[in-house]
Amino acid sequence: TAFFHGYLEETIYMVQPKGFEAQGKEDLYCFLKKSIYGLKQSPRCWYKRFDDFITNLRFQRSSYDMCVYINTTTYKDKVYLLLYVDDML
Predict the structure, then answer these.
(1) Whole-number Å distance between alpha carbons of 32 and 38
(2) Among 37, 59, 79, 84, which has the minimal tally of Cβ within 10 Å of its Cβ?
(3) Does an H or E element contain 49, and which?
(4) Cα gap 53→7, rounded to integer Å
(5) Distances (CA, A) of 27 to 14, 23, 71
(6) β-pairing verdict for 13-15 and 29-31
(7) Are 6 and 48 in contact (CB under 8 A)?
(8) Backbone angles phi, psi at 29, to 5 degrees
(9) In this predicted model, what pLDDT tens digit does every residue of 33-88 receive, in sequence order?
């Protein structure tokens, strides 16, 4: 379900899904507003949205690994956040 929350940066149209065609308008296409499963852009869209959210919480992305975020608290403690994705393309 994470991919349903990503925003697309380009315009994408798709054929109406089978069983959900609008009667009398079967030749029309659907305009996608958000990413869905099966798009090559979905993982990137989701990561961009996650990155924007986590950096707003004052985490900084590691310069060595894009999946590691570091937050230094006011007490000089560090919080490390590791993003692990099991379903990579």
Answers:
(1) 13
(2) 84
(3) helix 42-56
(4) 13
(5) 11, 10, 51
(6) antiparallel
(7) yes
(8) -110, 160
(9) 665 655 666 677 778 888 999 999 999 999 999 889 999 877 778 899 998 876 65
Q: Exposed, middle or buried, 2 (CB in 10 Å: 0-12/13-18/19+)?
A: middle
Tokens of 13: 């149209």
Residue 25 structure tokens: 């308008």
Rounded to two decimals, the pTM is 0.56
Distance in angstroms (rounded) separating the CA atoms of residues 14 and 67: 31
Question: Where do the DSSP E strands lie in 21-84?
Answer: 29-31, 60-61, 68-72, 78-82
Q: Which residue has the tokens 């393309």?
A: 89
Nearest-angstrom CA–CA distance, 49 and 26: 33
